[in-house]
């Protein structure tokens, strides 16, 4: 999952290096107050525009609490061009915390447009995001900056979350309602609002996690699903050993380049060396803080989290070797492009943290993660602040019934990239095994953002949602060219 914490913001920062327009995607999600529901001119990717409709519907903030307030959720509908449209295709953004409307402004925009040939396409902003921003923002913290070490960042985020949760609760927000089950129920309420008997689901990363909950709770109202970068209901926290295996795969790719191999004989060993030294002696690192120059003390834990963002996609994975060589030489200035303004890195939005806390982790998986994390290259950082926030807010965990696997008989198209370092293929395989009527599309050398990585994926998505048969497919992209200077 990918948004609020340091490594998750690194995913966004790294994406912005390759696609500068993505840096504006959330800010330009074309939000508007409910009074402005209706036809709009939607601004998409690289200057493209299209007619669309902005809409809103109302749901309880926490259906388990009769006293909770009602909140309005927003979406953008791209009307179908088909003579006989199929069930509406609802896009489920990743994160948690990503915005469906924001995704539609980026490189996925052409897919939204292509799918109109099948049905209406709904870019939903999940509760607590974008058009559905229902949690009030908080001013940047005035607390001293933490050490960017495991102890420093863990204690900072736990204390900040507890303080923010209390503030939001006093403001009348039912924070316990920000969980994946409530969000799954929102999808069924959206279906009713649209007047549809069933919906199709199209989701990625956390969006697949949400889709699984929709299938578990409202499966009879779902027609078919296309999901990428699968994240199971007990995979909020990824297994460190699986990330180690992925890094060995990356090291093998690095070995195919003689110059890169000469500069870095063993990438995981280099990474471990940097982490250990910086965690023991955090280095002064120049950053921006609230728009002004400042300094932090960067530990190995902070670097591990940044690396967890870079390994998401090949174009940022390619930057990893050069970053570690520079850090090994004592140059922390290389971190600046990924850190941005530290005040943004350290703030809390509420929705992402609450969703992850509620999804939680089973005791068995937690024990496995703890055991593997002690010796893993990235430790337990890949999904920070989970599992570090466990127990910070009592009573919000959705429990083992939520996380339990299930048998899924819906037609499914499952798409994955072989170089996805966020939801590695071995983890995705466990989720895919639950689908009984699936077609898998594996894109060699694609990463976490696989839907737009290869043009044939869009073609397959359209065919699938039309109800056509799609065979298991392997597509290929060139391997990344690693930077060592």
Description:
- Helix 1 (6-18) crosses helix 10 (300-310), helix 5 (180-194) crosses helix 6 (206-218) and helix 9 (267-280) runs antiparallel to helix 10 (300-310).
- It contains 19 helices and twelve strands.
- A hairpin with a 5-residue loop joins strand 1 and strand 2.
- The model is unreliable at 1-5 and 12-29 (pLDDT under 50).
- Helix content is 38%, strand content 18%.
- The protein has helices spanning 6-18, 100-104, 109-115, 150-170, 180-194, 206-218, 240-255, 258-263, 267-280, 300-310, 314-317, 320-328, 336-339, 342-346, 351-359, 363-373, 400-403, 425-432, 455-465, and strands at 38-43, 49-60, 70-78, 89-92, 121-124, 199-204, 222-228, 283-289, 292-298, 408-417, 435-444, 473-476.
State Rg.
21 Å
Count of DSSP H/I helices: 19
Number of strands: 12
Instruction: Give the assembly state of these chains.
Output: single chain
How do the strands and helices of this protein lay out in sequence?
Layout: H1 6-18, E1 38-43, E2 49-60, E3 70-78, E4 89-92, H2 100-104, H3 109-115, E5 121-124, H4 150-170, H5 180-194, E6 199-204, H6 206-218, E7 222-228, H7 240-255, H8 258-263, H9 267-280, E8 283-289, E9 292-298, H10 300-310, H11 314-317, H12 320-328, H13 336-339, H14 342-346, H15 351-359, H16 363-373, H17 400-403, E10 408-417, H18 425-432, E11 435-444, H19 455-465, E12 473-476
Parallel strand pairs: 4-5, 4-6, 6-7, 7-10, 10-11, 11-12
Antiparallel strand pairs: 1-2, 2-3, 3-5, 8-9
Helix pairs in contact: 1-10, 3-19, 5-6, 9-10, 9-12
């Amino acid at each position: 999952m990918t948004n609020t914490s340091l490594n998750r913001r690194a995913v966004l920062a790294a994406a912005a290096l390759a696609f500068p327009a993505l840096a504006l995607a959330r800010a330009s999600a074309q939000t508007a107050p409910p009074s402005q529901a209706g036809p709009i001119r939607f601004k998409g990717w690289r200057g493209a525009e299209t007619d669309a409709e902005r809409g809103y519907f109302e749901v309880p903030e926490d259906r388990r609490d009769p006293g909770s307030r009602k909140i309005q959720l927003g979406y953008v509908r791209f009307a179908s061009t088909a003579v006989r449209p199929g069930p509406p295709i609802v896009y489920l953004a990743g994160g948690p915390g990503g915005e469906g409307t924001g995704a539609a402004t980026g490189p996925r925009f052409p897919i939204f447009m292509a799918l109109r040939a099948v049905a209406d396409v709904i870019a939903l902003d999940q509760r607590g995001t974008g058009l559905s921003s229902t949690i009030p923002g908080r001013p940047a913290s005035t607390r001293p900056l933490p050490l960017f070490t495991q102890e420093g960042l863990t204690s900072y985020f736990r204390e900040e979350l507890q303080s923010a949760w209390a503030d939001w609760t006093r403001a009348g927000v039912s924070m316990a309602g920000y969980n994946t089950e409530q969000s799954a129920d929102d999808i069924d309420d959206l279906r009713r609002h649209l007047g549809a008997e069933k919906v199709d689901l199209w989701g990625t990363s956390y969006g697949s996690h949400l889709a699984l909950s929709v299938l578990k709770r409202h499966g009879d109202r779902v027609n078919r699903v296309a999901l990428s970068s699968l994240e199971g209901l007990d995979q909020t926290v990824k297994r460190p050993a699986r990330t180690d295996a992925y890094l060995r795969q990356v090291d093998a790719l690095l070995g195919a380049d003689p110059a890169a191999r000469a500069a870095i004989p063993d990438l995981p060993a280099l990474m471990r060396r940097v982490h250990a030294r910086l965690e023991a002696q955090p280095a002064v690192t120049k950053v921006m803080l609230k728009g002004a120059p400042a300094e932090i003390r960067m530990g190995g834990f902070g670097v591990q989290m940044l690396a967890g963002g870079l390994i998401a996609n090949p174009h940022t994975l390619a930057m990893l070797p050069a970053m570690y060589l520079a850090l090994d030489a004592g140059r922390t200035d290389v971190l600046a492009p990924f850190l941005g303004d530290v005040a943004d890195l350290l703030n809390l939005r509420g929705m992402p943290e609450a969703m992850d806390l509620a999804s939680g982790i089973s005791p068995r998986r937690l024990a496995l993660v703890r055991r593997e994390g002690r010796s893993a290259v990235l430790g337990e950082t890949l999904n920070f602040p989970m599992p570090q926030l466990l127990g910070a807010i009592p009573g919000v965990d959705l429990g083992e019934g939520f996380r339990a696997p299930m048998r899924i008989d819906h037609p499914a198209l499952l798409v994955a990239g072989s170089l996805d370092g966020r939801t590695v293929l071995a983890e995705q395989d466990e989720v895919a095994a639950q689908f009984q009527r699936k077609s898998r599309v594996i894109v060699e050398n694609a990463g976490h953002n696989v839907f737009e990585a290869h043009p044939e994926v869009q073609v397959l998505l359209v065919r699938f949602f039309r109800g056509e048969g799609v065979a298991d497919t392997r597509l290929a992209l060139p391997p990344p060219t690693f930077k060592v200077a």
